[in-house]
Write a structure and sequence with these properties.
single chain, alpha+beta, three-stranded antiparallel β-sheet, 11 strands, rod-shaped, disordered C terminus
Length: 201
Amino acid sequence: MTPRATTRERRKTRPKVGAQIRRLRTDRGVTLAEVAVETGLNVGYLSQVETDKASPSLETLAAIGRALDVPITWFFSEFIPPPFVVRGRDRRHKSSFGARVEIVDGGMPRSLRIVEASLPRGGRTPVHVHPGEEHHVVLSGRIRLSQGDHSVELGPGDYLVWDATLPHTAEQIGEEPARVLIITPGPQHSWTPSSPTVDNA
């Protein structure tokens, strides 16, 4: 590929932001002449930018953004990829440490892992460990979390975080099954399936 062809390809892939600039400017009731005064750019060039006949540099976009009182990222809002959504009905789940564990985040590789664990009445986990911090938010029911000499009872809305590399366990208490949102480091959680331990007394 020749240098000329390479330049042509780069031009094709440059995002076109002229329509966004023009729409914002007209919505604000600002004229091209006023933008020119604020940015130090000439009206002719600004007109070419708005019709995508000229590709502005980042410095130029920043100047236009200041003139229109928006951050430079505003001009690229139409190029933002769609968010990743996992519907509650579509969650994958598994049995782990005596709890039903639903993969809230869809299991995509990322820096956090988010799951929802459900413990039935009388359910408790064996003592276990895994890497990093473990954050808990109780969604419903009550749960007792124990680590070493520390034992804490939590209800709906309560939050607890601890070092999950130290042995710990969880136990459902009260009349209602417990549901807990758990956040740990990603991309994979080291939980392994385990048979439930249930106290029927």
